[in-house]
Write a structure and sequence with these properties.
Blueprint: E1 11-16, E2 21-27, E3 33-38, H1 49-54, E4 59-64, H2 85-98, E5 103-108, H3 110-121, E6 126-132, E7 143-144, E8 149-150, H4 165-173, H5 183-191, H6 201-208, E9 213-214, E10 218-219, E11 222-224, E12 231-233, H7 238-241, H8 251-255, E13 262-267, H9 281-286, H10 304-317, E14 322-327, H11 334-337, H12 339-351
Parallel strand pairs: 3-4, 3-5, 5-6, 6-13, 9-10, 13-14
Antiparallel strand pairs: 1-2, 2-4, 7-8, 11-12
Length: about 350
């Protein structure tokens, strides 16, 4: 039985593919057009339940716990040297196991990074792709300018070594309090725009606390660096999977055929995926919180929105279809905090 109760109308099953044994959530008739929801970092498939239930008839909704999260096999580590390809390969393997040839894909935050990989590696398997507050295709942290140029050759300032060790320990301990830097405080302070809180706060917090911790999971390992802030990505774990030196060449995206239509959907008050992200170490360097910051010329806060926009503009120029929707007064998880507006935008995109 699942640790976290599912909402009525959601069916949870344990599915074993050629790559991963994990919990998979289903909603809607199996005969409908498949829509696969890919969750972000420090969450699980639980976060998608209300979105799945709000989908109209004619869709078969599927959400998996990705490796390193939720009830996925704890032995299934994330090889960060492959970027997020372990996770995108897991999605394809799940599709194969379920007998799904093509599907609509919806990815949030880190899950958006999984979608970038799916677009480059298996565009023919995607009917469409919705990128919800996605991580930049150049990764998270350690890069500058709209072209994603590395701040340092070893991508210092990104990867497993930049996570807050106090927060990681609280995750490991299952801390449910609301103290400073607790998982609850981070969720309610940054996953959405305060003062919003979800009616399912306790279930969502339980989902956050299911994150697998360690050097092969969250946050991952790291190596010392001569470049600021003294730490660079290692090989294992989810944060190394998002490190800029481990990302595929984004130019591959412009050459794919077919080119699935894309939706870029985000909140205007996102503090996670932003040009001054509150989870980018360079932001704290610029604010004087982390000492020794070498300045904007060497290591500015990553211009995440500018990078995503530039890549999507290039995709459109290469013949792809791109739609952008920005939801006002909304943070990092519009599908939870502004559900009605999000559902309207997503469903209209899928219907087209």
């Amino acid at each position: 039985m699942s640790i976290i109760p599912t909402l009525p109308g959601i069916n949870a099953e344990t599915i074993t593919s050629a790559r991963l044994k994990t919990r998979v959530l289903f909603a809607g008739a199996a005969s409908g057009a498949p829509v696969i929801f890919v969750h972000g970092n420090l969450t699980s498939a639980t976060f998608w339940e209300e979105t799945m239930l709000a989908m109209p008839a004619g869709y078969h909704c599927i959400a998996l716990d990705q490796r390193g999260f939720g009830e996925a096999d704890p032995a299934a580590a994330v090889d960060g040297s492959r970027g997020l390809a372990d996770m995108s390969d897991d999605v394809i393997a799940l599709m194969d196991t379920l007998g799904i040839d093509q599907a609509h894909i919806v990815g949030h935050s880190m899950g958006g990074g999984v979608v970038w990989n799916l677009l480059m590696d298996a565009p023919g398997r995607l009917l469409s792709a919705a990128l919800v507050a996605p991580v930049s295709p150049f990764g998270f942290g350690g890069s500058k300018d709209a072209q994603g140029t590395l701040c340092a050759p070893d991508a210092a300032g990104s990867g497993g070594g930049v996570a807050n060790p106090q927060y990681t320990q609280m995750l490991k301990d299952g801390e449910r309090g609301d103290g400073e830097m607790s998982p609850r405080a981070v969720m309610n302070g940054f996953y959405w725009k305060p003062p919003f809180t979800s009616e399912r706060e306790e279930d969502l917090l339980a989902s956050v606390l299911q994150t697998h911790t360690g050097e092969r999971d969250y946050p991952g390992d790291s190596v010392a660096s001569e470049n600021w802030p003294g730490v660079a990505p290692g090989r294992w774990g989810v944060l190394n999977g998002m490190a800029p030196n481990n990302q595929p060449d984004v130019a591959r995206l412009y050459a794919i055929e077919p080119k699935p239509p894309l939706l870029w959907l985000r909140g205007d008050s996102d503090q996670v995926i932003a040009d001054m992200s509150m989870f980018d170490l360079a932001t704290f360097g610029k604010l004087g919180v982390v000492p020794g910051w070498p300045g904007d010329e060497v290591c500015p806060p990553q211009p995440m929105i500018a990078q995503i926009k530039q890549v999507l503009d290039n995709y459109a120029a290469a013949g792809g279809s791109v739609e952008e929707v920005v939801i006002e007064d909304c943070g990092h998880s519009p599908f939870i905090e502004k559900a009605a507006e999000f559902n309207q935008a997503l469903q209209a995109f899928l219907a087209d």
